[in-house]
Amino acid sequence: MLWETGWAPVRVxxxxxxxxxxxxxxxxxxxxxxLIECKSSISDKIYIEKERIDEFKEFQSRFGAExxxxxxxxxxEWRFLKVPQLRDSGKNVVIxxxxxxxxxxxxxxxxxxxxx
Length: 116
Description:
The chain has helices at about 50-65, 95-105, 105-110, and strands at about 10, 25-30, 30-40, 45-50, 65-75, 80, 85-90, 90-95, 105. The protein is an alpha+beta fold. The chain has a six-stranded mixed sheet with strand order 1-2-3-5-6-9. It has a three-stranded antiparallel sheet with strand order 4-8-7. The longest helix is centred in the middle third of the chain and has 14 residues, at about 50-65.
């Protein structure tokens, strides 16, 4: 989807099992750089370990780019959230379909030139 809209994306193979913090996708266009951690589920909730989120934030801080969590629930479009939008559930953060529908941005909004 990113390539088809003029972005230059790179998938980071094995990002979830790397020895150092990383992300699933790095994409750039005209000086704007996105870091995207992708999650999908057939249920209506996704749990992510806080440690993984902390590593993602560390990577984002060092890289100096926009950090997004890309989420797709069954039969729904991709939505994108910032880390502060995620709900703390103790050991994990949780993303549910209601949160995504209410606060997540759609792909075409995320890639707008003047977004954010």
